[in-house]
Amino acid sequence: MARGYEATAENHLCEQDRTTGYYYTQAAMSNRKGTGKAVNRTELAEFFGVAMPTIDHWVRTGCPSVERGGKGKAWVFNTADVAAWREQKIRDEARGVSELGYEELTRRRLAAQTAREELALAKELEEVAPVWQMEKAMQSAFAEVRAAMRNVPSRAVRQLVGETDEARFKAVLLDEVDQALVALSQSSLVDVAELEPDDDGEDE
Known about the structure:
mainly alpha, Arc Repressor Mutant, subunit A, 2 domains, two-stranded antiparallel sheet, 58% helix, elongated, disordered N terminus
């Protein structure tokens, strides 16, 4: 097995397992294929050259122990068992990421293909329209609404010349607004011919 060396943050010389890519202290490296030795949490951290929070994370994610600690009782680990567990976990994670990546790519490719086919069918059935066409339609509709509402005052003023009753003012204005809205709801706000591309000629 090819090995490399690197100094940890604590300046302990570590060996790298080229199979997994992880660094281990020399003591851990020499012990990985042996029977191991019993250690507590602190000793385990020193043995593998990691911080205590890393050991806590290992425990939460299934790190094997000889004796579980708690209520004043120290944790006991076997260094060989932990090394073997770490190697298997690394292999499992690598295999899982690879398979997940392939499955995710396949899912996205199928989703994109389905979306394209659905969009093509919707276009064929004239159920969708290009964004520019929708924008043009909305601009045309808003222009019609604006024109209708701006005509309300001129129509209302003819009925309110000399009027001083506030209630009458409100009634007339509301009536004119309602009439404008009803007229708009009953008319086509968008001329289909206006939605044709500007650079296209007439169909026939």
